[in-house]
Design goal:
This protein is α+β, with helices and mostly antiparallel strands. It has a single domain (12-197), classed as Aminopeptidase (3-Layer(aba) Sandwich). Helices cover 30% and strands 29% of the residues. It is built from five helices and eight strands, in the order E-E-H-H-E-E-E-H-E-H-E-E-H. The chain has helices at 27-33, 51-66, 114-129, 144-153, 185-197; strands spanning 12-13, 17-21, 71-77, 83-93, 98-105, 134-140, 156-166, 172-181. It has an eight-stranded mixed sheet, sandwiched between helices. A hairpin with a 3-residue loop joins strand 1 and strand 2 (17-21). It is globular.
């Protein structure tokens, strides 16, 4: 089997969104998309207070990408190219054919098909293009909304990593670990495809 890469350039496109390689010029639109503090409430990053702070976060991701540790993709609406968030392939363990995905999406696009399609595109790339065997999704134990969304995918809840990561406020985050392994991907793919096939006739929101 070919080596698992998760290196740029990667571009993925669906019905609602496209995922493009993260660029430095994405910092300003990402800052606009993530202005709601709720977006950052359960993430390990402090909410960027300025475009410059968002630029610093983007630059951090690009440095990790250059080291082969991360593959960050900008999430854009297909219709007009509006930037709505970022999805990252991280914790890339190439010998084990394992990877984690992490996503943040502006709150204006919560409760739309955006998150489901981002997951669909990311998981499909991981399993069908990169040949991953195991994909992980981690979320803060306090983040009920994220847990419900992950469970709707059909991912298996494995347990809790206690005091797993340092939060931006200095406290400790405990993380719930979910996973999908290659043998489970066909069922997860079918579930995601069925959900995305349902009509969604409302316009996708723009940031307020």
């Amino acid at each position: 089997m070919p080596a698992m890469e998760f290196r740029p350039p990667v571009a993925l496109e669906g019905r609602y969104v496209r995922l493009d390689p993260l660029q430095r010029t994405d910092a300003a639109p990402l800052f606009a998309a993530g202005k709601d503090p709720e977006v950052w409430r359960f993430l390990r990053f402090a909410p960027p207070r300025t475009v410059d702070e968002m630029q610093g976060l983007v630059d951090e991701f690009l440095v990790e990408q250059a080291r082969g540790e991360l593959l960050p993709l900008t999430i854009r609406l297909r219709g007009d190219g509006t930037v709505v968030g970022v999805v990252r392939f991280l914790e890339i363990r190439r010998p084990d054919r394992a990877v984690e995905i992490g996503t943040w999406i502006g709150s204006a696009w919560w409760r739309t098909p955006v998150n489901s399609e981002v997951k669909w595109l990311a998981l499909r790339h991981a399993f069908e293009t990169e040949g991953a065997h195991r994909l992980e999704l981690l979320t803060d134990v306090r983040n009920q909304r994220s847990q419900r969304a992950i469970e709707r995918l059909g991912a298996v809840r494995e347990g809790i990593l206690r005091d797993h990561r340092r939060r931006a406020d200095g406290g400790w985050r405990s993380s719930i670990v979910y996973s999908v392994v290659a043998s489970e991907w066909p069922a997860v793919r079918e579930r995601l495809a069925a959900g995305l096939a349902r009509p969604y006739d409302r316009p996708l929101a723009r940031p307020g």
